[in-house]
Design a protein that fits this description.
This protein is an alpha/beta fold and about 300 residues long. Helices cover about 30% and strands about 20% of the residues.
Length: about 300
Amino acid sequence: MVPNFGIAGYGIVSHANENRSCKFGATAQFADCDLHFSMRSSLLRSVALFILLPAGAFCATNVVNMSHYDMMRPDFSSMKQQGIVGVIHEATYPAFQRDGKYLDRQMAALQVGLLWGAYHYANASDPVRQADHFLSVVSSSWAQANPAIRPSSGVLLVLDFEKNGHYPGGTMRADQAVAFVERIRERTGVYPGIYSGEYHLAQVLNSSRVTNAQRKTLTNCWLWVANYHKEPRATAPWNYWALWQYCGDGKCGLPRSAYPISIANIRKAELNIFRGSRTDLQDFWQQRAWQPSGGKPRRESERTLTAEL
């Protein structure tokens, strides 16, 4: 049976049953050992294949991201009908601003049964204050949603760690990103995702000013990377991306037949592919999201295989 894979930390986790055994009388000990070795070898081959598979081998477009720059009233019902599973919306941006469309869109998306996520567009100001403001906005907005329609997973959190060309305050440094994600983890129990363009991410994290300890901390976060021309490859220090933004504001250099640039009534959308199936994405959201209403995030019971690869 092929294991069902998900994402955990900067490794892969398996839902495979670890309690399987075989009994063959006096040879049971050796048979069990052989089976364990065979299962382990098969599992590691599957992990390697999972990491190396191109995006085309996975699910189609299934996540939309939005901000107040999207001026239309999004048709979330049509999005869901077209295969969208979740929406990640800007909640806050410099300097300590609340996205004016965040709350209403959260309500509308939850009403039709979509999963919900929130991102903070960062600058170079105090990262702890940025994190606190971000969580305050997300929490207060979540509290206003009808408990009957709030998904049990909660809100998937993301740090938008890109070159800041829109807002005051400059571009967040790597050490500030570390402080931000650690503050999020301290207050919520989960690390957020990190979003960035592939080129910017490589440029920043390959700098001699970034320490190995800082890189290691950041890889506790799952990776969401943008590349509008090809599948991202330069993801170090991560082994792979979890979410790929292939289209931003309708900009996409990939074949339209496989990579659409519109969804529902959004003609120039920001669209993403998750590395896994629809069920994997739902499980990922469940494991990684924060429950602002006070519930602690679920612990990941699956075994991380990073150290074994």
